[in-house]
Structure formats: C-alpha cells, structure tokens
Automatic annotation (TrEMBL):
Domain of life: Bacteria
Name of the protein described by the UniProt record: 2-dehydropantoate 2-reductase
Domain Ketopantoate reductase C-terminal: 146-265
Pathway involvement of the protein, from the record: Cofactor biosynthesis; (R)-pantothenate biosynthesis; (R)-pantoate from 3-methyl-2-oxobutanoate: step 2/2
Length: 268
C-alpha cells in the first residue's frame, strides 16, 4: 500500500493524516523545513495555504515521478508549478472542515472532495483517487478540473473578502444591505469565469453563494479568521487571481480589485 505524503501540518493536513492513519494507511506528515530525511512518500497532498505551496514544494523537492495534489484554496500556484515541475499535478477542493486545537485537530464539517489533473502523466490517477477517497470521501474526479475549482473560487471571492472586511459571520451576508454589492461582484466576475471555461450564469452564482452563506451562517470565514489572527490571507489567490484573469481577458473588475486591495491593507 502506498505511503501518503502530506505537506503542511496545519488543520486540513492533520485531519487528513489522522483519517488515513485511522485506516492503517502509512502517512508522512511534513511541516516547515528542515525535514527529517528518513521518511518518504509515494504521492504528496499539499495542505499549506496557497501562498505557502510553492516554497513548501521547493524545499521538499519531490522526485519528478511523484504525483502532487494541491488542496489549497484559491488558484494561481498551479499555473506556475505546472511550468516548473514535471510531476503529475492535480488540483483538489474539499468541503470538509478542520480546526486546530493545540496539537489536536477537530473535524468541523464532513463533506466531499473534487479533483482533477492539471498536467503530467495520467497514470497516477488511480493512486490519487485512492488517497483522496480514503482521506476526504467521497472523492469525485472531474475531467475538466477547473469546473469545481472555479465554482469554489466564485463563492470564496464574495464570501471571504466581505466577511473579512466587515468582520461578520457568513450568515450576515444574507441581510438586504449586502444584496446590491453581492450582485455587483457577481456581475463583474461572471464573464471572467465564463472566459475561463465555466458554464455559469449570474443567477446560478448568486444562488450558490446565498446557499453557502445560509448553510454556514454561524461560521467565521477562513479569511476573517486569518485577519483576526494577524495572518496573511489567501486573497491574492482568490480575488487577486480573478483580477489577473479579468485583465488577461480585457474585462473590467474594479470591485474585486478594490476588495483585493482593502483586504491586503487590512492584513499587512
Ligand atoms: N481548514 C479547513 O477547514 C479547510 C477546508 C478546506 C480547504 N482548506 C484550505 O486548505 C489550506 C490549508 O488550510 P489550513 O486551515 O489547514 O491552514 P493551516 O492550519 O494554516 O495549515 C497550513 C500549514 O502549512 C504549514 N506550512 C507553511 N509553510 C510550509 C512549508 N514551507 N512547508 C511545510 N509546511 C508549511 C503551516 O505552518 P505554520 O503554521 O508554521 O505557518 C501550517 O501548519 C488552505 O488553502 C485552506 O484554504 C482548509
């Protein structure tokens, strides 16, 4: 049986490590370097924050045949890594929730996982599916990997920065005072997402975002949690990524750009 490497020993990394170990699957959990050289793995699940992934992988220097699965929120690092590394590269997203409590990890929500391949040989697919399906079941393979990732990005690009800016729980966004701003943010990002290949309408995005705000009404978004803890947020890989893509397609994105700047100013 394969040894599953987990890079990033935070909340989601530890949750995955625990779930796999509970099934008697060998796990190699690595935090910040220096790393002990003794252990190695047959594939790596990258569980750092998006802005930590490239440095973490550079320090790990995985053998080029080993599959890598980026499980960070947000997008952008995968494009640079696909150019730099020849490893089979996968992207995944999960609705499981995890929280660190000292050295322990608490599962705050059971969910699912969607993943697909960005680059490299497809031979690694069964092994990646096996690991993800054991760690974050059910795992679903998407031949068009950007579909679930862009769907998640759309939700994060509205809920995360608004809740972080105003320091409110997700459910606060259901109030009428936010509706116009949410609709304007969606109107701006819909053509960008469509140009990136996501078949979506503004109404579908609005429905999804409101459904997530409702289902997670009492939750503190990860961006707000990062702001409150004085940590760097993932806004570059969320609204920043959207703005870069808007620029690439010569589409306007002033509202997302403003939010991107505001969150950066509030958290640096
Ligand atoms: N937690 C969740 O419920 C959840 C759910 C879905 C998706 N996600 C996504 O999963 C990613 C991780 O989230 P998280 O909540 O687990 O964050 P986290 O608790 O901050 O975990 C990230 C871990 O990576 C470590 N790290 C940083 N640089 C590293 C390096 N160079 N090498 C190895 N490890 C390094 C961090 O160490 P330090 O603490 O020293 O910085 C930290 O332990 C994020 O993109 C998040 O959005 C999280």
């Amino acid at each position: 049986m394969a040894t599953v490497g987990i890079l990033g020993d935070g909340a989601i990394g530890r949750l995955i490590a625990k779930r796999l170990a509970d099934q008697d699957i060998d796990v190699c959990l690595k935090g910040r370097p220096p790393h002990p050289k003794a252990q190695d793995a047959d594939l790596w699940l990258v569980c750092t924050k998006s802005h930590q992934a490239e440095l973490a992988l550079a320090a790990l220097a995985p053998r080029p045949e080993l599959p890598l699965v980026l499980l960070c929120n947000g997008l952008g690092p995968h494009e640079r890594l696909a150019q730099r590394l020849s490893n089979p590269l996968f992207l995944g997203t999960t609705t499981y929730g995890a929280k660190r409590q000292g050295e322990q990890v608490l599962m705050t929500g059971r969910g699912h996982c969607g993943y697909g391949q960005v680059s490299g040989s497809l031979q690694a697919l069964p092994q990646v599916h096996w690991a993800l399906h054991r760690a974050l079941p059910p795992a679903r393979y998407f031949p068009q990997v950007m579909e679930p990732l862009l769907q998640k990005l759309a939700i994060n690009a509205v809920i995360n920065p608004l809740t972080a800016r105003d320091q409110v729980p997700n459910g606060a966004l259901l109030a009428s005072q936010y509706r116009q701003e949410i609709i304007a943010l969606i109107a701006e990002m819909t053509p960008v997402l469509q140009h990136e290949g996501l078949a979506c309408t503004a109404q579908e995005l609005l429905d999804n975002i409101l459904a997530v705000a409702q289902a997670t009404a009492a939750n503190t978004s990860s961006m707000l949690a990062d702001r409150q803890a004085g940590r760097k947020t993932e806004v570059d890989a969320i609204n920043g990524y959207l703005c870069e893509k808007a620029q690439h397609h010569q589409l306007p994105a002033p509202l997302h750009r403003l939010l991107w700047q505001q969150i950066r100013e509030l958290t640096t």
